[in-house]
Amino acid sequence: MNKITCAFISVLQHSNKSYGSATLLGRQLSYKSDLSLDKIYPNARLKLYTPPPPPGSGDKFNGYIPMDKLEISYSRSSGPGGQHVNTSNTKVDVRFKLSEAHWIPEKTREKLLKALANKLNKEGYYFIKSDLTRSQQMNLADALEKLRTLIRAQELDEPTAPSEETVEKLRRRQEKAARERLQQKRSRSQTKQDRQA
């Protein structure tokens, strides 16, 4: 017996001759791959779920980005990929209003507003685009990772001036490199002179 016959028999055994059994029969007899998500993960919820933010200090970004605060749109991607590119919306555009992003700590948000002043549109929205792969979910993950990297870069402390010891080490290294370079030049010059003599 093939899969369709087994499904048909199981539906007939469990049906009670009600009106809804025709719909159930149609669903059972429609083809589903063995690799479909509901067969691989039978008990999983296939809806997108945004978990609550993890507890953490209020002055540092913890990596949590609430999906309901972002405006996500999908469009056709460019580049190679054949017919698949022309038929699927894999490019991801993530936008959010930076001044109203309360999930970013206040100090970091102020730094971002200064750093991204020329990249915000008139309404104050910041755009992140990703068409790195041919997968919509992978591009969304890439865009969110770009956003996390951008936020964490603003949280880094300001670079401090190097200490006197570090400056002295760098000066010695440069002098040593210059001496070695001159020695190599002299050696090469001597080799050329010996060839001409």
Automatic annotation (TrEMBL):
GO molecular function: peptidyl-tRNA hydrolase activity; translation release factor activity, codon nonspecific
GO terms of biological process kind: mitochondrial translational termination
Domain of life: Eukaryota
Residue span of region Disordered: 155-197
Prokaryotic-type class I peptide chain release factors domain: residues covered: 76-92
Listed transmembrane segments: none
Pfam families registered for this protein in UniProt: RF-1
SUPFAM superfamilies, alphabetized: Peptidyl-tRNA hydrolase domain-like (SSF110916)
Gene3D superfamilies: 3.30.160.20
Signal sequence, start to end: none
GO cellular component, one term: mitochondrial large ribosomal subunit
Entry EC no(s): 3.1.1.29
Family listed: Belongs to the prokaryotic/mitochondrial release factor family. Mitochondrion-specific ribosomal protein mL62 subfamily.
Protein's recorded name: Large ribosomal subunit protein mL62
